[in-house]
């Protein structure tokens, strides 16, 4: 575990900028474990200091709200967080997939200091499901949404994200587990929802 002020500030500042662009409620939550891992106090201080440059964004943090520590987050995120939080910065992102209905559905965007970007499902390539038509494609589809947003196509990115959300919201997706649906079946569900929205 190695933290630097410079590295943490890059993460925190990116989170504030993303919240400013995408979060209508203008609330950013810091999820850390500074209560148990004192080194993470650097996240706490950086979050507060950088936040002074974003006065329009409400800071939501574990110092004021005990349920925001990582361990508590894992037990509450699936049932309450999707409606209570809209943007988060965290030193431990492993519990975040709960918000997206399991490991099969969260996307990831990795960036460098230059222009390079990588958009992919958070679970990687899942080679054990190769050729079986059973891998969950939702994370890959949502990674396309992240890519579209990055390319300045926010409306298209939002449409893709909403199509996936609608499939989950309506219960069409029985389970995010591999094999619960065929890969192409889930793809067709999302395409149908997207087509219905955009015509």
Describe, in plain words, how this protein is organized in 3D.
With 199 residues, the chain is an alpha/beta fold. It folds into 2 domains: 5-96; 107-198, no CATH class. It is 43% helix and 11% strand. It contains 7 helices and 5 strands. It has helices spanning 5-22, 41-51, 70-76, 81-84, 138-150, 154-169, 183-198; strands at 27-31, 58-61, 88-90, 107-111, 117-121. The strands form 2 sheets. The chain has a 3-stranded parallel sheet, covered by helices on one side. Strands 4-5 form a two-stranded antiparallel sheet. α1 (5-22) packs across α2, α5 (138-150) packs antiparallel against α6 (154-169) and α6 packs across α7 (183-198). The chain is globular and about 45 Å long. The model is unreliable at 77-85 and 97-101 (pLDDT under 50).
Assign a percent range to the helix content. Answer: 40-55%
Tally of separate helices: 7
Number of strands: 5
Q: Flag low-confidence runs.
A: 77-85, 97-101
Largest sheet: 3 strands, parallel
Distance between the termini: 49 Å
Multimeric state: single chain
